[in-house]
Amino acid sequence: MTGLSAIARADSLVRVLEVQGELAVPELANALELPASTTYRLLRQLLEAGWVEPGERRGAYRLGPWFLKVAARMEFQLDVRRVARPWMVDLVGSSGAAVTLWVEREGRAVCVEREVPVLSNTLPPEVGDSVPLLRGAGPLALLAFGPDRVLARSGERADARVPAVRRAGVAIECDPVHGTTGFAAPVRNHRGELVAALTLTTVGEGYEPAAWVRAAADAIGGCLGFLEVG
Amino acid sequence: MSRRIHDNVASVVEVLADRGRLTVGVVAAQTELPRASVQRIADGLVAADLAEVDQDGQLALTTRWLHLAETFRRTGRGWPGAHDVLQALATATGLTSHLFVPDRGRALCVALCVDRAGAPGTAALEPNPGGSLPGFAGAGRIVLAHSPESAPGTFEPLTPTGLATVAELRADAARVLADGHVLALEDVVVGVGFLAVPVLANEVFLGALSVAGPVGEVTPDRLDVLRAAAEAIARHYRS
Fold first, then answer.
1. CA separation, residue A205 to residues A6, A174, A182, B95, B234 (Å)
2. CATH of the domain at A123
3. CATH number at residue B28
4. Are residues A150 and A185 in the same domain?
5. Which pTM was predicted?
6. Quick one: pLDDT at residue B238?
7. How far apart are the first and last CA of chain B?
C-alpha cells in the first residue's frame, strides 16, 4: 500500500468516527464496506499510530490523541496577527480607510496590528496602544462578542450597547471629536472563541464598511478554522 | 497504514505543524525522506483535506486538524463535562488546573483552566492541551504510578531537583500509589509545583487532575478540593 492509498483508507475511517463518535469493529466494517478482518487490521495500525484509541464500550474505537498533538503544534503557527495581515492590506486597498486589529489583554483592548492607507485622513492607534474596552468600535466588539467574564468586569455602562452590537454582528462607534466612525467585527477561531476584533475607521461615506469589515473578519476566522454554524 | 508509512506521514505532518507553509522540497530536506515519498504523502494529505497547496506551490496543513482535535476532546478522553469542574477548581485555588490522560508513558494534557476571576494577567502554566509531561515529572508521576510498565529505562530530569534515577522513580511510584496524590515541586520548571491526584472510575485509572502554580502556593491543603474535583470528573465519566 502506498502512502497515498494508506492515507485515503485511514481518512475514510477517521471520517466515520468523526461523525459517529465511537464504533465497534463490525459497525465500522459495515460503514466502510470492508471485511471485518481488514477493518480490524486497519484499526490496529491506526491504534499504534495514535489516530484512534479504544472507546468506552468494549471493542469500540474513537478518534485518538494524535490529532490533539498535531493541532497543539499547529496553533503556534496560527498567530492571528500574521493570518490577518493580508486581509487587512486588502481591506485598506478596497476601502481606502485605516484598519486595525485588537485583542483583549487583562481587561483592556490592545491594538496588535494596523494598516493605514498612504493618504490617510484618520489617526488610527499605534500598535501597542491599550485602551478601556468601552472606548471605540474595536474594544466594544471585544466586549460584546467576548466571554461573559470580560463583560461582567466592564460595569453597567456596557450593558446598553452590547445587545445591539450582538444583534448587528458589528460594533459601530462615532468619534465626534475627530469626525470618524469605526466599524468592528469579531474574529473567531476553530472553537468559536473570540480572538480579536477587526476595525475599519473612516471619515467617508457611500459604501458599506460594516459589511466589508465583517466579511474580512469572517475570512480571517476561516483561516483560523472558524466554521459558522447556521 | 504500515508502521513505516505512518512514521513517514507523521514526520511530514509534524514538520508542517511546526513550520507552517513549506515546499515539498523543503519538507523532504527537513524530514530526510525522498522527495518522491514526500510528494506521495502530500498528495494523500491533500486528497484527504488534511493539507492544501497554495498558489505558490507551498504545502500546509488545513484547519481540519483543529476540528479533529476538538472532536477528540468532545467525544474522547477530552471529557467535555470536565471543563466546568476544571474552571471551578482553578477559581477555588487561584491556580492553573490541568486534566491529563495517559499516552505512551506520558501525561497528555487534554484540558486546562486558569483563574479568570483572579488577578488580571494570570497566565496559564504549561503544558497546553496537546502538550504532555514525562512520567518522571509533575502530574506525569501519577500516570507512571498507575502504568508502571511504561517506566523509562533511562531518563534525564528536567530540573536539578527532579527524580534522577530509575530506582527513585520506582520508589516514587509506590509512594504515589499509597498516598493517592503527588506533590511535585520544581521537577518540571524551577519555581513551579504540581499537586495531582488520579481520576478513577470503578477503580479504573482514567487520568490525572492537577493544580499548578508557584511552589509557595501549591500546598497539600489543596488536596480536598482537588480530590472532590477528580471525583466529580469520574462521576461525569461514569454517567
1. 56, 13, 12, 50, 58
2. 3.30.450.40
3. 1.10.10.10
4. yes
5. 0.77
6. 56
7. 35
The pLDDT > 90 percentage for chain A reads 51
Q: What ipTM does this complex have? A: 0.83
Range of A56's domain?
Answer: 3-73
Total structural domains in chain A?
2
Residue contact A72–B69, C-beta within 8 A? yes
Question: Does residue A191 share a domain with residue A87?
Answer: yes
Q: How many domains does chain B have?
A: 2
Q: Which residues contact A142 (CB under 8 A, 6 or more apart)?
A: A102, A103, A104, A109, A133, A150, A186, A194, A196, A197
Residues B50 and B136 in one domain: no
pLDDT at A203 over 90: no
Q: Give yes or no: residues B37 and B84 share one domain.
A: no
Average pLDDT by consecutive 10-residue portion of chain B (239 residues)?
82 92 94 94 95 91 91 74 88 92 91 70 73 94 92 90 93 95 95 95 91 93 96 78
Looking at residue B236, what is its pLDDT? 74
C-alpha cell at B152: 523509562
CB pair distance less than 8 Å for A7 and B110: no
Same domain, A97 and A186: yes
d(CA B26, CA B8) in angstroms, rounded, equals: 15
Place of cell 476532546: B73
**Chain A residues 140-159 within an 8 A CB cutoff of chain B:** 147, 149
Residues in A closer than 8 angstroms to B130, CB to CB, are 68-73, 75
Q: How confident is the model at residue A230 (pLDDT cuts 50, 70, 90)?
A: very low
